[in-house]
């Protein structure tokens, strides 16, 4: 993989630090220094205004706009929805002696910014060198509260180093921020007001009518005497601060944001709710807000930390990943999902993909089961939209979209939105995986089973019987490998559909026996017919799974083995990314693959394949994989670890935790690779930790990378928090809380309790 690090950040185990302002890297840093709390997120942009290259991004989960597209064929979408850039609640303008602070033009020294994983705060400071020789140290601190989802805090401090004087400040709420893809603000102002110390504004998106209230209060030991400033889509306060040489003075802005994405409130009700939140914010002590934020993160690190000894860069990298995963999602708002860039940028339009269930769900399942269930709740909430989509493509049941923010399909590339069928099987796998490892039968019986029925109906009506083979399969599809278009019998789709049918029937039979009343209610709700269960069983039994019996290699799709071979190492590095440098149709002519397809299902259902089968398929497909997806290397690393290719596993892992920190793909400026960040967690826990979660019991086969002295991580399993530590001396396991449980280690059943269990590191499992 021709990926090279762009290293410019300081290495620190508990923070990300940048020293010296580099305009060329500003957008990358804006992404890296993003803050969020699942409800809202802001990029690390300069709030004081910046006339250089910047993406001023403020986003809210589930808050979207819509625009029409020109397709008119049945089944191809006619409009798409996207996460919309919203209010700049950090808006600040600073002036001294008529000179306005702007890092694109102002001279500064000692620039430094820091994102602290333990306190959940972002701090930026520098000394402003004014034209007349005055020097003013300016410090910006911000947080997005993890305990009060509507609350954001900004603190601005001034310290004049060689003068006394006055600084003019304008702080406000700006709905005029441009949504970059559309080239305009997507908001119209409905109402604004300033009264009793609260400044507030309410606006509405131009087409979807999603409303957002934003308000703030100011706190300071100094006398501010602010006066209101109002203009179109803006409400703020202007004031002056008296500065005394050598003395630090600051003000704090407590902002509240409340979105009505479901449009259940009248404008008057939304305004009243927002004002109530602002009044509550006015009663907060700033130090208490900071303390609550630090306490929250302390709790996270006690249960979710991954500690690495002997590798400072990856220690920083994996903690950055865990920090961002909790910022993106923690399950407080059932019905939200995870966009491919989280709340850190506009790329991928804030849409959620199949990555949620296949890559993100394991992290939450083993760290925060509430969040894992909440992710599945999104799919249940949007089941009606999935059923409408199935009708659009001439099928029954539920067709979950390849890209969505609200349950509707928002991918405008028909070859993806109409041919990529694997989202529904990812959802059903997510239900199976979640219930298996949490024991949450209540969710399965009340919501999961209904989804399984509707998903099965879709796959039962989307497939066909082969004229010669007499086997069931799927024709005209695209699997996870997006370099193979309009193929027949993609092995991943067929196998996952087979598993779907079997799991649905098993679940319904279980309900029939154990909860007959709920089963009867489900049958009535879904109009389930007995012949459907027979049909699903028949199709599962006769599903075509393309494979070469001699080699044991699964054929990615019909005819794949006969495709022209491409030596991927012969492709010049200047051709990457291929989407930008090859004609679109050229991508589909070879046996080159974009990301794991066959290897993906061997990871998901790992226990069902022998080591020999994994080895044969890895050796066949790995040389053909170009890794154009950032999700790809982690799966290869995990399987390489399992088959004993430790040095190869580490090479795939090398940039996993630092994909964004070191800008390996040269596109971090667009936002963080949130789902790839989850894959980095899997790379350590499933890869080096050897965890497998699809068998009878949770199991581990740990290995130790040669460059590491030791490492440890936590997972929650059956209500027990397990700590696993690996070093040359052996593998240590302990139930930190929750009682006792049983797991498998190196194929042996082991009882885990509050007492330490020490096992030798298996021979040959020190990685290269």
Description:
Helices cover 31% and strands 24% of the residues. It has 768 residues and is of the alpha+beta class. It has 3 domains: 205 residues, Distorted Sandwich (Beta-galactosidase, Chain A, domain 5); 390 residues, Glycosyltransferase (Alpha/alpha barrel), CATH 1.50.10.10; 57 residues, no CATH class. It has a 9-stranded antiparallel sheet. α5 packs antiparallel against α6 and α5 crosses α19. The radius of gyration is 27 Å and the shape is globular. The mean pLDDT is 96.
Search tags:
single chain, 768 residues, alpha+beta, Beta-galactosidase, Chain A, domain 5, Glycosyltransferase, nine-stranded antiparallel beta sheet, five-stranded antiparallel beta sheet
